[in-house]
Amino acid sequence: MKLEPALEHAMAVWRTELGYASAGDHPRLSASEVTSRRVTVLVRYSGDVDALRRAGLDTGYDSGGTVSGIIALADLEQLDAVPGVESVALLTPSRPALDNTVEELRVPWKVPPTTPWPGRGAGVIIAVIDTGIDVFHESFRNTDADKTTRILELWDQGAKASDGGLPPPTGFQQIGRLFLPQHINPALKAGSSFGSVDTVGHGTHVAGIAAGDGSQDDRCSSPGRYTGVAPEADLVVVKAIGVSTNNEADALQWCAQAGDRHKVGNPPVPRPVVINCSFGRSLGAHDGRDELDLVVDGILRPAAPAVTPAGVAIVAAAGNEARDETHESGTVAPNGSATVSFHVPENSEKADSLAVWYSSAAALTVEITAPVNPARPGPVTTGAIPPGAPGAPGQPAGTYPIGLMTLDVFSSTTPHPAHPALKLIDITISVPASTAVRSGVWQLEFTNTTAVAADWNAWFRIENDDDFPTFRLPTEDDRVEKRRLNTIISPAASRNAITVAAYDDGDGTLAVFSSRGVPNQPVAPAGEIKPTVAAPGVSVAAPRGRDDKDSNSSCCDQLVVDKSGTSMATPHVAGLVALMFQKNRNLTFDQVRGHLQKSCRTDGIPAAEVPPPIEPATGIRGNHLWGSGKVDAAAALAGIPVATTVAASGGGGSRPLAFAPDEIGLTPHTLRSRLADLQRRFGPRPGLQLFAALVSEHVDEVLRLVNTNRRVLVVWRRLGGPQVVRRLLHGPTPNDALLPEAVDGLDLAELVSGFLAVLDRFAGPRLQADLTRFADFAKLWPGASLDRLDEAALAHGTDR
Fold first, then answer.
1. pLDDT digit string, tens, across residues 741-770
2. Which helix (H) or strand (E) holds 315?
3. Which of 165, 383, 578, 715 is 20 to 30 A removed from 612 (C-alpha atoms)?
């Protein structure tokens, strides 16, 4: 069999479900529904592609020797038997990888450096492969009279013909619909519904960080407060994440060709393209050789012609796997054994899968032991399973039943073709529908039958949307640091992607969730160390799609929302790469990556985590935590010479912004995220807790009054309310007083007193009651120390 492990896992689950459905025991699916299930695959082959089609493969983009496509699981064995097929890999669904960050990034058009580059991305294409985009959000409009779209192309891989648009791009997987400005603009003008919707909101948020122009009226500050790094770049969008049958490989190839489809100048030249990948999957040996990793490498460093293309770069999220503890590692001594425990939670209802990769010179026997379930007496262990996995007596090869569970174990006898230094043990635990995998502590016992030590790494797959197993046991109080290592996801693990870690620009620490690389990575070439760089990714506020179920913004009429993740760090860097390409479209991804690495900052990084120098000739630093350090946009851009062809890359020149540059800010806190930040910093202080409780309970009503009651609005603006909110959201963290006595010459005591009085006239019963009870506490906010606020809060008691 030439099926890759993830596909073997999918086949094992499919066979289990087909068995139950055929017997009439599946509560939701018929046998015909299970039989017709289709998956997206990547096939490496030599020979006739038509033979693959005759075997049932609906082919997509063919890069010559590698073709993506969709096929029924029932046809996989027929495809596997086609002469010339070398491997078939499953393209499993990826997951989204979820403040004043433009200033933190030191983007020159916002924070002028000594040698400024005023460009804002005009003429460059930012391609976003994600959950889609809210085409109606004003951050993605032009400044012309009709407020037309800045989206050049939108390929929704889940859309139907009835949704409008055009058939999918020629030469690519024929799924979904293609929408162009001629389809989007009429909907914008009419304010009607549109055939492609971002129901998750992740893609809208990501696109806003990279290229949103902040035109929306957020009701709390002037337009321009929430502005992306490259607000004049154009957008190409693929909705591929969260789509049941998608094709991310085709999405990458199509986005890479966007510059050719939108040439500019005379003679015409391709426009630069930076592809943002705020998604990924935890598969394979995490060594940069997963299928999507190889697709990325093939785009950026093609084998034929062996010329690195200029004006194309791919920026990918490192992943949010560092706190999940789904990775474990160790060594089994020669002729020795080792026991490893893992925990299955109670609600793990979908099939669980574990991949163990170990030194190919060794040979490991594995025994899997489940917790005892008194309701299901019988064996709780598979017994020792040597390489070759013969299967339990009377069972198919590699199959071992325990209770209602089916354990499919694939244990290779030879090195893996794509990873010649490694062998693989792949374990899938599946159960009947509406049944959970047996919860509790499980054990793996490895026995090394050779005289060579077996270094091993194991990862659980966590693409399912239910609870998944981890190596963290219920008895453990603290995280185990080594489990956080080697957790960078695909395609960020690819050799040539710019891989972005996330840090908290509030306290300067690496985000607890940000995936880590491998310590002591080889330093040649320095550009391939993982991660590459770090950017802000905690509590980032950016455009909120109108169908986004998350609405944690207490301001801005829900046009922005806070999200955290390496997904949010990545578009900061993608936007910066767009500025770099605007300055010099002739840069290759190698040069872009080098400029980013050489110019990184290390200020604020804890001393023990500062990346050491790894390339003396260039001064590039690097480690498995921060990569080369914090991205410094001004320094990166300062090192790039302006290309003589920069006008051609401009794509028609700079579009004017609808607001003054000094009004632009990007991604500040919302009230709720700022309050959470204060509580994290100062702990459970009574004064802060009471302040946070009052604000959280009444902010929506107060905002409604400001927006709808003219008398309240006049008092609010005349006494300086907007300036106070900006101070609270974007000002420095207080050391002693929650608010100063004055801001920009405004007397805050006068503001609080006057605003409380007008609120009392128009407030509802609950707000009026709290105004009466806590007026003296509220009047203390300007200038009072945190200790004084604590005393006042305790005097009121805690039974509010």
1. 777 667 778 878 888 888 888 888 888 888
2. strand 312-317
3. 578
DSSP string, 401-435: EETTEEEEEEE-SS-BTTBTTEEEEEEEEE--TT-
H-state helical runs in 644-708: 646-649, 671-682, 686-708
In sequence order, the 6+-apart residues with CB closer than 8 A to the CB of 658 are: 143, 213, 215, 223, 224
**Residues 480-492 pLDDT 10s:** 999 999 999 999 9
Q: Are 602 and 620 in contact (CB under 8 A)?
A: no
Query: Is the model's pLDDT at 621 over the cut of 70?
Result: yes
- Quote the CA–CA distance of 560 and 546 in Å, as a whole number: 10
Task: Write down the H helix ranges in 89-180.
Answer: 101-105
3-state helix, strand, coil in the chain (%, to 5): 30, 20, 50
Helix and strand counts by DSSP (H, E) for the chain = 22, 29
Token pair recorded at residue 240: 């591929």
Q: What is the pLDDT of residue 57?
A: 93
CA distance 444 to 619: 45
Closest CA to 229 of 604, 581, 643, 622: 581
Tokens of 508: 């300067």
Which residues neighbour 634 within 8 Å (Cβ) at sequence distance 6 or greater?
106, 107, 108, 111, 113, 116, 117
Phi then psi dihedrals of residue 37, to 5 deg: -65, 135
Unique residue bearing structure tokens 């090869």: 397
Cβ 737 vs Cβ 785: under 8 Å: yes
CA distance 293 to 491: 5
- For the record, the structure tokens of 228 come out as 């992306």
Gap between the Cα atoms of 220 and 200, Å rounded: 25
pLDDT confidence of residue 26: 64
Distance between CA atoms of 789 and 688, rounded to whole angstroms? 8
Peptide bond into 571 cis (omega under 30): no
Strand partners, 411: 425
In Å, what is the CA distance from 78 to each residue of 2, 46, 62, 428?
11, 16, 20, 23
The total of other beta-carbon atoms located within 10 Å of residue 5's CB is 24
Q: In whole angstroms, what separates CA 536 from the centre of its chain?
A: 13
Confidence band of 670 (pLDDT split at 50, 70, 90): low
Separation between Cα atoms, residue 422 and residue 686, nearest integer Å: 56
Non-local (6+) Cβ contacts of 19 within 8 A are none
Q: Is the peptide bond before 83 cis (omega within 30 degrees of 0)?
A: no
Tell me the CA end-to-end span of the chain in Å, nearest whole number: 67
Amino acid found at 431 = V
Pairing assessment for the beta strands 125-130 and 273-277 based on DSSP bridges: parallel
**CA–CA distance, 509 with 505 (Å, rounded to integer):** 7
Question: Residue 56: how many CB atoms within 10 A of its CB?
Answer: 17
**Closest C-alpha to 666, from 137, 108, 98, 110:** 110
Q: Which residues of 98-136 are buried (b: 16+ CB within 10 A; e: fewer)?
A: bbbbbbbbbbbbbeeeeeebebbbbbbbbbbbbbbbbbb
Give the C-alpha separation, 400 to 370, whole Å. 12
What percentage of the chain exceeds 70 in pLDDT?
Answer: 87
CA-angle at 640, arms to 636 and 642, nearest 5°: 140
Residues 636/596, Cβ–Cβ less than 8 Å: yes
Nearest to 93 by CA among 237, 248, 202, 208: 248
Residue type, 376: R
Neighbours of 686 (CB within 10 A): 18
User: By the 8 A CB rule, do 545 and 140 touch?
Assistant: no
Paired tokens of 413? 């006898």
Side chain identity, residue 163: D
In sequence order, what are the beta bridge partners of 459?
A: 327, 355
Cis peptide bond upstream of 167, omega within 30: no
Neighbours of 613 (CB within 10 A): 13
Q: Which two structure tokens, joined as six digits, stand for 181?
A: 């400005």
